[in-house]
Write a structure and sequence with these properties.
22 strands; globular; disordered N terminus; Immunoglobulin-like; mainly beta; 9% helix
Length: 325
């Protein structure tokens, strides 16, 4: 049985280590993206989406006066409801810039990749394992770096009626993104980087109603993947910038056994729910809770590392606990 003492939650204060999270909020026309809802493109034509997914990799964080921290071995899959990723436990105080690529690195992408393995060899839940909708086009072609699809308005009546898909791939189309980050002082043990992904800008020079179904590496597919290099697809939220989450107004800890894990907390006012996510940011368990002091039992967990997020009534995460089973 493992018991994590509450004091361990605060060791990062002494050593400067912080849990760093990256949230890339999907937006369209400046508001939160709503799937299966009619939304305008850049020229005012309406469309709606039933899928929008993309890979991010080769993340680099520039921090504390130009220091470079590379996370080159990690690949993250961003989805409309899965856009917060845990980057790691880092010796970071202020973040000045974040750099990343759109797609899967060439060494992991196809049969020719130096470190590539067959998709079936990845465990379930891994970003490079099987996805729904599919993000892989075969051992020779590799992964699709960004997929988007739904219905678009074909006759100007503001009613989307024509199905479209743009599924783009190709190592030659791997795009590099650089986003300056407003420096913010941090006094706690967690940093959240908040960016926007502007879907309408990503589709610059693309008319969904006329593209049909395009899966490939050239033409519109190549242009879409390069749009983040040429247009402000990824921007920092003016409201969020880099935020610090205060975990000092309470405490949390856990008790783990082979069969289950119990999460405990006290002093958490305005608690609404407790969420458990895996290391890739996927929601594993959730429990509605409102007591200032309490506990919740999570069962059926696979061995591994998880993050337990405490969410308030405004749907804001105000504390996070690292746990292991």
């Amino acid at each position: 049985m493992k018991l994590l003492a509450t004091a361990l939650l605060f060791t990062s204060f002494a050593f400067g280590q912080k849990d760093v999270f990256l949230s890339i909020h999907p937006k369209n026309a400046g508001v939160d993206l709503q799937m299966t809802t009619d939304i305008p493109d850049l020229v005012g034509n309406y469309y709606n989406l039933d899928h929008f997914d993309y890979y991010v990799s080769n993340v680099t964080i520039v921090h504390d006066g130009g220091q470079i921290l590379n996370l080159e071995e990690e690949v993250y899959l961003f989805e409309p409801e899965n856009y917060t990723k845990y980057l790691g436990y880092m010796d970071v105080n202020t973040i000045e810039e974040i750099r990343f690529g759109i797609g899967v690195p060439e060494n992991l992408n196809t049969i020719n990749g130096a470190d590539a393995i067959d998709i079936s060899a990845y465990p379930t839940g891994h970003p490079l394992s099987f996805q729904d909708p599919a993000m892989h086009w075969g051992w020779s072609a590799g992964y699709m770096f960004m997929i988007i699809g739904g219905d678009a308005d074909s006759n100007g009546d503001d009613i989307p009626d024509t199905y479209f898909e743009v599924h783009s791939l190709g190592s030659q189309n791997y795009a590099d993104v650089v986003v300056p980050i407003t420096t913010t002082s941090n006094n706690g043990n967690q940093i959240d980087i908040h960016l926007n992904c502007n879907v309408d800008v990503w589709m610059t020079n693309v008319t969904p109603a006329t593209v049909g179904i395009l899966h490939g590496t050239t033409g519109v597919n190549a242009m879409v993947l390069k749009n983040p290099e040429n247009h402000p697809v990824f921007t920092q939220s003016e409201a969020a910038s880099v935020s610090e989450i205060n975990t000092t107004a309470g405490k949390s800890w856990f008790n783990s056994s082979m069969e289950s894990m119990t999460i405990y907390w006290e002093g958490y006012k305005d608690l609404s729910r407790v969420e458990m996510v895996d290391i890739n940011g996927r929601l594993v368990k959730t429990s509605n809770q409102s007591n200032v002091k309490g506990n919740v039992l999570f069962e059926g967990l696979a061995p591994g590392t998880y993050l337990v997020n405490f969410i308030n009534s405004d749907n804001v995460r105000f504390a996070t606990l690292n746990v292991a089973k």
